[in-house]
Amino acid sequence: MKKFTDRYNICFLAIAMLSLVLFFGNSRNILAAYEEGDVSNGGTITGTVKLAGDVPAAKTLKVDKDQATCGHDDIPSEALIVSGDGALKNVVVSIVKISKGKKFEEGTASIDQKGCVFFPHVAMVPLGSTIELLNSDDVMHNLHSWSMKNTAFNEGVAGHGKLSKTFVFPETIKMTCDVHKWMTSWLIVQANPYYALTGADGKFKLEGVPAGTYTVQAWQESLGKTTQEVTVSAGGEVKADFELTKKEKKKRRRRKKVK
Question: What is the DSSP letter of 138?
């Protein structure tokens, strides 16, 4: 019995060590895929992201728990924020693939929970970053990450507590609170430093881009993504305006009754 147990333990340790080697090996490969450096006479990509078609009515989220902390009023939904002229807020604009360019900016990002709402609604960090997940409320929140590449977690955070998590793979991650069902945010883990988040005017700017041709992507949580190709000249500026279309709901086909 002891021999069997020893063999089992050895096999388990060998598998665990192999998993760690593969995990950290893949992480290093991803981190090495982008080469940081100084960009001389870099160009700029600017533009505006708008909604194609009519501007929909604003939606609200019902607050039905811990109202002493969360409030009694419905909360405006941030899933689709559109101005009167169709400009879209919280759209992530990024260069999809670029092997070399400017350095990543330093600093630790954070997502806070205040009044049972995530702040910010969309956060962007470089891969390999550690992010602080804060709880400024008096009540407990339960942070749930819906990730596939990075290690998913589902952990409670006591009032005025925090969690620290590191993300090593590029991914778009939905974050929710299992205690307060209306709470949602997004964490965008980026493989290169060329990314921006549109403001209320729908505008964005990507600076320090080496001369070349690139695919630029615009992504919004409710509208999906679209791309376009742009060519950046040394020291020049190129426009990349986007229009995102609201998805139509698929109609369910009724099954014919068998007579």
Answer: S
Residues 4 and 50 in one domain: no
191 pLDDT higher than 90 = yes
pTM above 0.70, yes or no: yes
- CA 246 → CA 49, 71, 104, 120, 239, distances in Å? 13, 31, 33, 23, 23
Same domain, 40 and 28: no
Mean pLDDT of 26-41: 75
- 239: enclosing H helix or E strand: strand 237-239
Quote the tokens at residue 40. 């001389």
Is residue 87 domain-shared with residue 204, that is, in the same domain? yes
Same domain for 149 and 63 = yes
Q: Can you give the pLDDT at residue 259?
A: 55
> What are 77-104's pLDDT values in tens digits?
999 999 999 999 999 999 999 999 999 9
What are the DSSP E strand ranges found in 57-211? 60-61, 75-76, 92-95, 100-101, 110-114, 117-119, 122-126, 129-134, 141-146, 154-157, 162-167, 171-177, 184-190, 195-197, 203-209
CB of 29 closer than 8 Å to CB of 220: no
**Domain containing residue 8:** 1-32
Give the model's confidence band at 255: pLDDT under 50 very low, under 70 low, under 90 confident, else very high: low
Nearest to 89 by CA among 249, 240, 182, 218: 218
